């Protein structure tokens, strides 16, 4: 009788736990996370770097917060909203769905097409991409589930500086001087390399004339040679003998560099 009672007590004690076995796997049934793995929460692109292009494709990295799967998994990208968003889908940019995380991979590249439009001469087109949760993925790192993209063309590079400054090389009076769109176009054209289809849009912060890397002194001379060859009136005495390029953004002054006249 005592053994029977012990058996009944054990059964009564263990019975509530019998249903717990099926609950354990649910801890691992949640979808993996996914996030933009760019180095920051924004990405900037300028067509000035590629002046012959009217369209390009950005390659945006995304990463899984979890394990690889043995099948492809769909990634859903949607456009976001924001006070500074001014780009229109289909005009300034185009998404290329369906996007997928390939089987066996935990990272991939999301292609997004961007277009150069006329207003990019004066404004930067801004749009936001968001990763949307689905049956395959939930939000990963919350601060990395959206990405702001800025696309421009003839905007002043942050590394240009001002005419009287010694901090930035390009803006220094000994080099290119005051930034204007007209002058910037001349620099981009003069330094364009058709082999690589690129030009120079980044400048050192060392300042002065001789403290910059030697390649930039060559760039300065190339721009000066380009102006002298194509617009000899800019350097003639008196000015204006032969083809002459004046800057409507700087009171119609002729453009000179190395040293700059404004």
Order of helices and strands: HEEEEEEEEEEHHEE
What is the spatial order of strands in the main beta sheet? 5-7-3-1-9
Largest sheet: 5 strands, mixed
Number of strands: 12
Which spans of ≥5 residues are poorly predicted at pLDDT below 50? 6-15, 21-27
The structural class is alpha+beta
Task: Please characterize this protein's 3D structure.
The protein has 262 residues and is of the alpha+beta class. It has three helices and twelve strands; from the N terminus they run H-E-E-E-E-E-E-E-E-E-E-H-H-E-E. The strands form three sheets. It has a five-stranded mixed beta sheet, with no helix packed on it. Strand 11 and strand 12 form a beta hairpin.
How does the SSE layout of this entry go?
Layout: H1 2-14, E1 32-36, E2 42-46, E3 55-65, E4 73-79, E5 93-95, E6 99-101, E7 107-115, E8 125-132, E9 137-139, E10 146-152, H2 181-190, H3 214-230, E11 246-247, E12 253-254
Parallel strand pairs: 1-9, 2-10
Antiparallel strand pairs: 1-3, 3-7, 4-6, 4-8, 5-7, 8-10, 11-12
């Amino acid at each position: 009788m005592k053994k029977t009672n012990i058996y009944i007590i054990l059964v009564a004690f263990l019975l509530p736990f019998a249903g717990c076995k099926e609950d354990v796997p649910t801890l691992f049934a949640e979808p993996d996370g996914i996030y933009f793995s760019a180095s920051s929460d924004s990405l900037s692109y300028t067509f000035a770097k590629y002046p012959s292009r009217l369209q390009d494709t950005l390659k945006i990295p995304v990463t899984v917060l979890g394990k690889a799967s043995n099948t492809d998994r769909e990634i859903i990208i949607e456009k976001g909203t924001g006070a500074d968003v001014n780009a229109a889908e289909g005009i300034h940019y185009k998404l290329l769905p369906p996007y997928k995380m390939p089987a066996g991979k935990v990272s991939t590249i999301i292609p997004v097409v961007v277009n150069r439009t006329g207003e990019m001469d004066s404004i930067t087109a801004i749009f936001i991409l968001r990763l949307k949760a689905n049956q395959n993925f939930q939000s990963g790192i919350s601060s990395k589930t959206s990405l702001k993209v800025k696309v421009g063309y003839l905007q002043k590079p942050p590394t240009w500086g001002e005419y009287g400054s010694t901090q930035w090389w390009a803006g220094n009076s000994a080099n290119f001087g005051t930034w204007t769109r007209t002058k910037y176009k001349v620099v981009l054209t003069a330094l364009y390399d058709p082999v690589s289809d690129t030009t120079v849009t980044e400048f050192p912060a060392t300042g002065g004339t001789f403290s910059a890397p030697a390649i930039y002194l060559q760039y300065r001379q190339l721009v000066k040679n380009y102006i002298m060859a194509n617009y000899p009136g800019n350097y003639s005495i008196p000015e204006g003998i032969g083809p002459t390029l004046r800057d409507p953004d700087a009171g119609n002054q002729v453009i000179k560099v190395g040293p700059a006249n404004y």
